[in-house]
């Protein structure tokens, strides 16, 4: 199963490999931070900030073509703003973590393919 789709990223960068690699590296660095922040904010009960974190994550997900997870983060964000269905929050966080960690592995493969030739681009 593929979690990412780099069509959008390739389009906005003109398929510029160094730029694609840079944006992928940014995503790879953000994922652990998003996961940890979501877990900590949920544990502390700060649902408003949790929703803001989901909103930030949503934008990053779109860059790497994780549209379904981005839509789920939007739904999650709206729930946190309303303070509704709080029992579902751990499931959203777990889904985010599992899919993002799988995406990280995919994107590492993309980097392995793109970076060796990027100097000659």
Keywords:
121 residues, 5 helices, elongated, 0% strand, mainly alpha
Can you give the mean pLDDT? 94
Helix content: over 70%
Number of β-strand runs: 0
Low-pLDDT stretches? none
Strand content: under 5%
User: By helix and strand content, what is the structural category?
Assistant: mainly alpha
Domains, number: 1
The span between the termini is: 30 Å
The whole-angstrom Rg is 15 Å
Number of helical regions:
5
Element pattern in H and E: HHHHH
Main β-sheet, in a few words?
none
Morphology: elongated
Task: Give a written overview of the molecule.
This protein has 121 residues and is mainly alpha-helical. The protein has one domain (7-112). Helix content is 81%, strand content 0%. It has five helices and no strands. It has helices at residues 7-13, 17-44, 47-63, 67-82, 89-118. It is elongated, with a radius of gyration of 15 Å.
What's this model, at a glance?
Helix content is 81%, strand content 0%. It has 121 residues and is mainly alpha-helical.
């Amino acid at each position: 199963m593929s979690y990412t789709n780099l069509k959008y990223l390739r389009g906005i960068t003109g398929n510029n490999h160094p730029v694609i690699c840079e944006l992928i590296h940014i995503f790879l660095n953000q994922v652990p931070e998003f996961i940890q922040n979501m877990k900590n904010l949920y544990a502390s009960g700060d649902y408003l900030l949790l929703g803001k974190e989901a909103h930030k994550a949503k934008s990053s997900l779109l860059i790497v073509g994780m549209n379904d997870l981005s839509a789920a983060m939007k739904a999650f964000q709206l729930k946190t703003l309303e303070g509704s269905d709080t029992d579902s929050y751990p499931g959203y966080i777990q889904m985010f973590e599992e899919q993002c960690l799988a995406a990280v592995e995919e994107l590492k493969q993309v980097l392995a393919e793109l970076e060796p030739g990027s100097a000659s681009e």
